[in-house]
Design a protein that fits this description.
heterodimer, A: mainly alpha, Four Helix Bundle (Hemerythrin (Met), subunit A), B: alpha+beta, Rossmann fold, Phosphatase 2c, domain 1, Heat Shock Protein 90, five-stranded antiparallel sheet, 15 helices, elongated
Amino acid sequence: MSTKQRLDGDILAMLKDVMEDEFPVLIDTYLIDAAIRIKALREALNEQDAETVRITAHSFKGSSSNIGAAPLAELCMVIENSAHKGQLAGIESTLDEVEQEFMAVKQVLSEL
Amino acid sequence: MHDDRGLTILVADDTSTDRLILETIVRKEGHRVISAKDGVEAVALFVQESPDIVLLDALMPKLDGFGAARQIKALAGEQLVPIIFLTSLTDTESLVQCLDAGGDDFLSKPYNRVILQAKIKAFNRMRAMHGTMLKQRDQIILHNDHLLQEQTVAKQVFDNIAHSGCLDASNVKYFLSPLAVFNGDVLLAAMRPSGSMMVLLGDFTGHGLPAAIGAMPLASTFYGMAHKGFAMTDILREINNKLKTILPVGVFCCATIIDMNFHKGTMKVWNGGLPECFLYRAASGEVESVRSTHLPLGVLDSKSFKDDCLNFELACDDRFYMWSDGIHEARSVDGDMFGEERLVQVFKDCVKPEALFQDVLGKVQAFIGEGEKDDDLSLIEIRMELPENILSKSVDFNASRGTGLMEWSLQFEVKPASFRFFDPLPLLLNILVEVPGLSSHSGELYTILSELYNNALEHGVLGLDSCLKKTADGFGQYYSLRQERLEKIDQGFVRFGLDHKTGDNGGSLMLTVTDSGKGFDHQLIQSCELKMQGYCGRGIPLLRGMCQSLEYLGNGNEVKALFEWENDS
């Protein structure tokens, strides 16, 4: 799906530099926030609520991008675009991919 | 405001991760951060904290970034509050939407610290510039209001002075551009006690306050002197002196002054710097032009100033036209000037003289059309008319002429204690030059008064013999004797009697000088006067040349000199 790095080292380095002592807080915040977004995506998909799917995927894309998780952000964009077109059919499997990618990202982040 | 540090920056983002990153970056730059989780919160915080710069996420719950941006821009009014959209939106339509909502820039995710710093700096510079611009704009508005107010006051004051004249007379038609601000053109008209009408059209260099400053003394001098009956040349000289004294170099008044005498059917014209005036002859339909032959008022000092006027005989219904250069320089839409040729043509085409004024005005206004009215149109027509046919609300043209001081007399006696130190001549002369008509004869009057007084004092009161002055030695002896007797004097008098009458064409002044001396054989003197030579006896023949009559009465201690003068118009 993507040849990009799972987590961009440069972005992480910048964040460490900027956040200093707050860096672990930022990572924790992201992990909690991400788990909430994935849960919200599942629920909205069950309810066939395309607008909530789109907005939630958009926000998740933004925060993932900011943390340097480009592949995860790209998966979110696929969901956002499909929801925007009203095509909820193929989203289920993409969401599974999102969840797997997030677990991988979480693994890397916790090892930092 | 120019300090890039210490700004208050509003961050609105619904994702806590993003918010955390932004807050930290901004705070590290030394700014104060206030955070909102959605659009509604962002607007509320904006109202509460008045942040300097706003960072807005595009998609947020409750109220999205677009809606929040619109509200914030509306609340900010004319203050510049830069809004930077935080977005991972990349499609053109969304970016356009951000700008339409009032966004000033974008910051895309992932956030880059260096770029954000640069943007905050750039927008703070813009804010400072905008603030300076607003401050200066307000100052300009304030100055402009002030300026207009001053000019309005100047115009009001000027209007009050200028419009006390008789421009409403039935033989006068005039047009002045209706401008709120004084445009430098002055039109004054006054009736003189002799029954003639004096009209002045002036065009000051410049507009507004500087022009109005000169117009005030011009108008007050004109009306003040015209009503008292001073001659046109005296008024011209006085106005020129006043303006020359008051105005800075380069500010002056081009003017034409006329004095139209309805009783005699005559007109005097002085033109200094205005375009040539036209005299339209009713009988022949021909036009005579009166060119400027002088420099404008306020240019020359009183020694160099020339007051010579042109004189015209006018018949009833002859019309005199004066204008400022606004008529000649009136521009059409294409930028052409109306010019003298077109003006002359209007007069050539004239069928009905009574419509000439409207013709000229109408032609000029039609020529300008929708063009720029960049100069001032001032135009006046004065028609020769029988005095009884002239109607005016402000002046009664049929009132008996020469109202005011028509006939008066004065007795003045110099007593012994005053002879030694007091010279009565300046005092008497001061009185005489205040009398309209006499003011232009001050030189002759001084000579007459001085001769009569000295004779009365020296030969009468002091009893000195003029024969002493026949030789050079005697001349010296005469003056030491004079001094000696003056110092001892304790009795005697010299009495002046002044009787003045004003008539239609001028006036007469009878001077009577009586002294306490024993007199002399004036019949003998008068018979051999012409033979007298040398140091004495020059006085009497000189006086005879100036006075209409000069006669000694009684035993020679009383002399009557009659001085007559004619009106200048």
